[in-house]
Amino acid sequence: MGWRARATGLPPVEGAAAAALDRLAPMAVPAGAVLFRPGETVKGFVIVLRGRVEVYLTGLSGREILLYEVEPGQSCVQSTLGLMGGEEYSGEAVARTPSEIVLVPRDIFLRLMDEAPAFRSFVFAAFAARLQSMMHLLDRVAFQRVETRLAACLLARAESGVVAATHAELAVMIGTAREVVSRRLDALARRGIVAMARGQVRILDAEALGEIAALVD
Asked: Residue 121: in which H helix or E strand, if any?
């Protein structure tokens, strides 16, 4: 099976479809590499074997927002829409960590959708999960306060109590401006909830931060 044995969630495929997949070679993608940009034609269905790819949307003002992340077992909704509906990419995908991916070309993808029910179910289930996560994102950006979004983001991103991200990167993650994030972090620091250093935020009071993340307007 080769790489298919390492593809999280990918169902068993047999016959000619399996042979077509086995002929595809995994690609190593360094951190920071751009996989696609707005306006480009969708080349294939992305399967992430290792690492994390982040997909951003840039507004007319130049402000970015993190739409979603693609890790092993998850799907890229932009790729699925392009392959099934003929749409071009509207976002930009960047490998956030060193990654390994397989790109399933359009012709093989469409054949699998027609001939392999298990693969079709895998694609639709992953697509539905991704749309649900984007609805949650819309809800957060539209209806949650910045402090709530920032607190939740810090808690979700923390490793051993430290979030390795700049103010600009945090702003992209929660859909606001860098200056707004800086002001909110300064306020949290004055309350002793976080401490800031260059390129990172240290959580000092996770309980208090959790209370802010749970606030409902």
From this structure: helix 117-143
Total domains present in the chain: 2
**Count of Cβ atoms closer than 10 Å to residue 183 Cβ:** 13
Whole-model pTM? Answer: 0.69
Q: Does 53 share its domain with 116?
A: yes
Give yes or no for a contact between 185 and 168, defined as CB atoms under 8 angstroms apart.
no
Q: Which of 84, 110, 142 is the last residue of a domain?
A: 142
* Containing structural domain, residue 55: 2-142
DSSP code of residue 198:
T
Closest CA to 65 of 208, 168, 179, 182: 168
The counts of H helices and E strands in the chain are 8, 10
The mean per-residue pLDDT over the stretch 31-40 comes to 92
pLDDT digits (tens, 9 = 90+) for 87-130: 889 889 999 999 999 999 999 999 999 988 989 998 999 888 88
Q: What is the CATH number of the domain that holds 117?
A: 2.60.120.10
Q: What is the chain's percent helix, strand, coil content, to nearest 5?
A: 45, 20, 30
